Amino acid sequence: MKIAALYIRVSTDDQLEFSPEAQKKALIDYAKKNEYQVDERYIFIEEGKSGTTAKYRPSFMKMIATAKSKPKPFDAILVHKFDRFARSREDSVVYKSLLRRECGIKVISITEQMEDDKFSVILEAMLEAMAEYYSLNLSDEVMKGMTEKAQQGQVQSVAPFGYRIKDKHFVICEEEAKIVKTVFNKYVNEGLHCSNISRYLNSLGIKTIRDNKWDARGIKRMLRNNAYIGSTTWNKTGRDKNYKYWTKDESEWIVVENTHEAIVDKELFDKANSMLDYNASLKTSKRPANYEIKHYLSGLIRCSDCGGTLIYSITGNDRSNYFQCGAYRRGKCNTSNSIVAYKAEEMFIKLLEEYIPLLQESDFTKFEITKRKQENTSEKEILKKRLLEIKNKYDAAKRAYLAGIDSLEEYADNKKLIKNEEIEIQKYLDDNSDSDTSNAQVIQGIESFLGMLKSGATPKKLNDTLKSFVDCAIFNKAEDSFKIKIIL
User: Fold this and answer.
1) Do you find a cis peptide bond into 357, omega within 30 degrees of 0?
2) Is the CA virtual torsion 72, 77, 82, 84 positive or negative?
3) pLDDT value at position 92?
């Protein structure tokens, strides 16, 4: 049997015959006569809303979101009249078209049989053309508005460190402005690296505008920000279809000078940026897309002082390659915890070999343990219930196929998804059965890793194996010691 959703909307000026109860009764009667099954989960009621446009109707938007889920939850949406679905003709055509083309769901008025009228088809094509024109025209209009506001010195973003917003304009915060001047002076005139400057600010207890510690990237952003010479820049970044930001070509930027009082002079600012450009040119290029980790301990060694990850660096000589605290490099840690790679390997492997007999005896006194991420009994119970519900999902998928709702291909795809879910849940439950099993798994992991190491496995494979039973290895340079946290 086909499934129908009900959409019921009541405006404050509706008469009694259009009450929610009256609409619901009429819709259910229609569903029974036309062989539609109504599920209580798919009855959407909007009370006391004028509903001129869809965005002001939460139940409507919830219904649209539900309709787009896979597999489709219902075959049709029943409404008392089309003006209940949407007062705006534009909304009506847009959403009916979306439901029909993308979801295979019809919108049916039980009192008006005109959902596929010719005018709707014509209007739908017109709206698509208008939407395309709007998209092309929008960028130009936005840029015009942004430029006009920028030329007036109006604020359109959060104030950078050193400024506050007053009457829609940037005004200097004297206390922070002194710090900005100090940063530029230390970088240009004293030759301090950005990481050293960030450590200096952190040692004074100075926080960023977001109340965080400073790091090298934050210092570079400050040195690059032309707000400090009284300019405002717009259209510097864009977003792709996945909402990821990227920097546009400099020719597309909108820069307006003298929009507010400067903190540093342009000569000092230009010197700082020339030095940044030169230092950037000395660095190696970014990682290629097919980049693989170079050392099997990458991402596993942590600093004993700040908890940050030690970064692997290649020098050109295998005996001098080393790990160093990444937070120290960025100026967020005061201790340069570092160790040459070959020594880290020796200490790490020796500890793993010592742990095997301890794990066999369940003697956990000489190393630290990190519990596997789980909600213990409560989480397991939830997963067990989900496992029992898997059978119902199989049955539902089969009913949808037999009823003609899903094609044979859709039925096969749904069964595959359900099966994958079942396998994942069962694997998780098996992996988290009891501590004895966990001990055996760690021992097996250590032995597997040591065997792969001797056979010359790639760093990536060795790293993946370690991460299955090692949470991290804490290195303390002052004590020249390693502590491995085992996952149990």
Assistant:
1) no
2) negative
3) 62
**Does residue 15 register a pLDDT over 90?**
no
CB-CB contact of 184 with 220 (8 Å): no
Query: What percentage of residues in the chain have a pLDDT greater than 90?
Result: 23
pLDDT in tens, 112-149: 665 455 565 565 556 445 545 554 565 566 667 766 77
Q: Dihedral sign, CA of 165, 166, 170, 171?
A: negative
Helices assigned H by DSSP within 152-265: 174-188, 194-203, 216-224
Spatial distance between the Cα atoms of 348 and 472, rounded to a whole number of angstroms: 11
Phi, psi of 66, deg, nearest 5: -65, -40
Model pTM score:
0.45
Q: How far is CA 37 from CA 79, 97, 482, in A?
A: 15, 23, 65
- Pair of tokens at residue 472: 């991290």
Cα 129 from Cα 120, distance rounded (Å): 14
Dist. CA 247–CA 235, nearest whole Å: 9
Q: Is the pLDDT of residue 250 over 80?
A: no
Helix, strand, or coil (residue 118) = helix
Which CA distances in Å does 80 have to 17, 50, 86, 112, 467?
11, 16, 11, 8, 58
Residues 284-323 pLDDT 10s: 545 544 556 789 999 899 998 888 899 888 887 878 899 9
The C-alpha angle 277, 251, 147, rounded to 5 degrees, equals 115
Q: What are the tokens at 167?
A: 């009457």
DSSP string, 77-105: EEESSHHHH-SSHHHHHHHHHHIIIII--
What is the SS3 assignment for 231?
Answer: coil
71 near 57, Cβ under 8 Å? no
Rounded-to-integer distance, Cα 385 and Cα 424, Å: 14
109's CB contacts (< 8 A; 6+ apart) are 79, 80, 81, 82, 84, 85, 115
Beta bridge partners of 5: 77
